[in-house]
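Extended Data, panel c. Modelled sequence:
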Amino acid sequence: MDIKKSLLIYVVEDNLIFNTMVCQHLKNQNFTNIKSFVSGKECMRAVFKGENPDIVIQDYFLDDSNGIDVLKAVKSKCKTAEFIFLTANKDIEVAIDCIRYGVSDYIIKDKEDVLKRVVNKVNKVSAIIQMKKKERAILISMLIMVMVLSLIIITGLLLYFFGVIVRG
């Protein structure tokens, strides 16, 4: 399955023009499952209704909340969601705090190539998500094989012991 089509990406940005630009740029890069929100509360509502985003690209300062509040709320329901902060906030303490809370990247909106940097980071995070999914599938397969082998061994032991008891 094409990872670009299967990932659910949230864009949480209260500047409607910038929100549209980010969403459109992602679509131009063949990411198709994108949901746009203009407030942190809208994003959190969607998550609490049962959606599970893979990647959340969001501003740090939103009209109704800050990025850390949204991150904590979303992570409480979607432990595997990856966050990319896209913000005009250049405060290094805020950036460090975000990284401490598990943000994958903190991109400042001050340069022309900001959309390119976002897509590059989304591609990297997508590759990590895909590897984690494959790893989970391999672990499940291994667990099933161990269970089947255990059943075979137990069945063999039972047949042996019952055979000894019946003959003995």
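The chain has one domain: 3-135. This feature is highlighted in the accompanying rendering.
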